[in-house]
Amino acid sequence: MEGLLLEPTLYTVKGMAILDNDGNRILAKYYDKNVFATAKEQKTFEKNLFNKTHRANAEIIMLDGLTCVYRSNVDLFFYVMGSSHENELILMSVLNCLYDAVSQILRKNVEKRVVFDNLDIVMLAMDEICDGGIIMEADSSAVVQRVALRTDDIPLGEQTVAQVLQSAKEQLKWSLLK
Amino acid sequence: MNAFKRDKKEEEEGSGNPFQNIEKTTVLQETRIFNDCPVDSRKCTHILTKILYLLNQGEQLGTTEATETFFAITKLFQSQDVILRRMMYLGIKELSTIAEDVIIVTSSLTKDMTGKEDLYRAAAIRALCSITDVSMLQAIERYMKQAIVDRNSGVSSAALVSSLHLTKIAGDVVKRWVNEAQEAVNSDSVMVQYHALGVLYHIRKSDRLAVNKLVAKLTRMSLKSPYAVCMLIRIAYKLLEEEDSSGGASSYSTLFDFIESCLRHKSEMVIYEAAHAIVNLRRTTSVELAPAVSVLQLFCSSPKPTLRFAAVRTLNKVAMSHPAAVTACNLDLENLITDSNRSIATLAITTLLKTGAESSVDR
């Protein structure tokens, strides 16, 4: 039973991807040069992965020697890949963080169109979650905080009086306009 | 609200991907406006997003193209827009491997890294370490040491992770930062603790005595971070295996007891890591195996597919070395044969083939 456990290392994640409902890449990152060195190999893998996962909502699959955990919503598919010997629950925590962070960034409208409208922030979020294969942050609210989301709804306690007044005015305006 | 409704409508009309038809050459031309003064941050952010999107799609840039783009990006340092600045760091990181003379941004990044804005500091450290080469490392060493022990957890994590990346180009340098890393292990932040342990282990891993000491110390102080505990279990497992093969058994029981105690941790991630380590140890007796197997058995009936998958995959391995230990789980495994996740079902079947008796064939 030798070599079944991984060398203790921080390099955990092999890749992360967000695909659309045709299996095309919206954003993807691969962190290990030994897995899918070229863009072509990566895209073939993504297509393959998508074909195997888009109908069955089964959360986890082994493919091409990688453990892939996934989650989907309307027209988006989120994937996190790791070595087949990796602790699946760690990968799952990364996936949950990715999904929740994106969902918060898009204000719960987890849809392709909205992702493209906020592509810069989503890129920053992915960069905050994983750095070169090391899990940087697994807490989605910390990620969202760090990507400096253009936000109008800062928690009340952290707003200045002027900001509160401003947002109250806005809300009043909108309720009158309805 | 209105903007949102409009978006919805466009989507219904099927406009799809707004980035679909962008051309590399056109986008690279557009970077000219980076030279404008003052910087139009919204426009520039959008162009930068397009470049990064193209790179992410697998578009290749030649050395000259990359270098020109890189230099165009450096012009944007005059803007103070937070998002634009962060996108610049991303761009710098992406282009650092292709473009030439990337070290010219060293001083700008060092300034951001030591500045007041916390949102810049962590990201600037990571960008800085991606452009630094061995010769430049000395110049930033002082700042790195400070950053590792910074009060802001994001900054500290960024410095630790970056220093681990740096070991690839300059193996010895990070060894000099061991004191700072040691201090960071005591951090209250879950991630900093994890990253610090990773760095410490990397520094010490060739020295068995030092690793032993590290593990002995950390198992006593009960780490807060589940990720760090998982890592510690892996280190302990490795020590146990090595000790086993070298014949010594001095600290075997303490290490094993530590792993076993993790079976009662509150995080599922840690429980699974511990069970996985125990069943993979070469020397485990069936008595030692029992608690780990019963934990895995519990996981088999979890509503979470990932947990079931992890459990059955591990049981599948145990079935090879200790088939008798797994027989207790046969009933649970039989329930998994019809699991909606095919990987789980397949693993359950192959496990049963190794452990199943004639009596279970009928069911």
Automatic annotation (TrEMBL), chain A:
Keywords in alphabetical order: Cytoplasm, Cytoplasmic vesicle, ER-Golgi transport, Golgi apparatus, Membrane, Protein transport, Transport
InterPro entries assigned to the protein according to its UniProt record, in alphabetical order: AP_mu_sigma_su, Coatomer_zeta, Longin-like_dom_sf
Chief place of localization: cytoplasm
GO cellular component: COPI vesicle coat; Golgi membrane
Topology of the protein relative to the lipid bilayer: Peripheral membrane protein
One of the GO biological process terms: intracellular protein transport
Pfam families from the UniProt entry: Clat_adaptor_s
KW Signal (keyword) present: no
Organism domain of life: Eukaryota
Subcellular location: Cytoplasm; Golgi apparatus membrane; Cytoplasmic vesicle, COPI-coated vesicle membrane
Occurrences of domain AP complex mu/sigma subunit (ranges): 13-150
Keyword Cytoplasm in annotation: yes
Family of the protein in this entry: Belongs to the adaptor complexes small subunit family.
Complexes and interactors: Oligomeric complex that consists of at least the alpha, beta, beta', gamma, delta, epsilon and zeta subunits.
PANTHER family: COATOMER SUBUNIT ZETA, ZETA-COAT PROTEIN
Role, per record: The coatomer is a cytosolic protein complex that binds to dilysine motifs and reversibly associates with Golgi non-clathrin-coated vesicles, which further mediate biosynthetic protein transport from the ER, via the Golgi up to the trans Golgi network. Coatomer complex is required for budding from Golgi membranes, and is essential for the retrograde Golgi-to-ER transport of dilysine-tagged proteins. The zeta subunit may be involved in regulating the coat assembly and, hence, the rate of biosynthetic protein transport due to its association-dissociation properties with the coatomer complex.
Protein name listed in UniProt: Coatomer subunit zeta
Species in which this protein is naturally found: Zootermopsis nevadensis
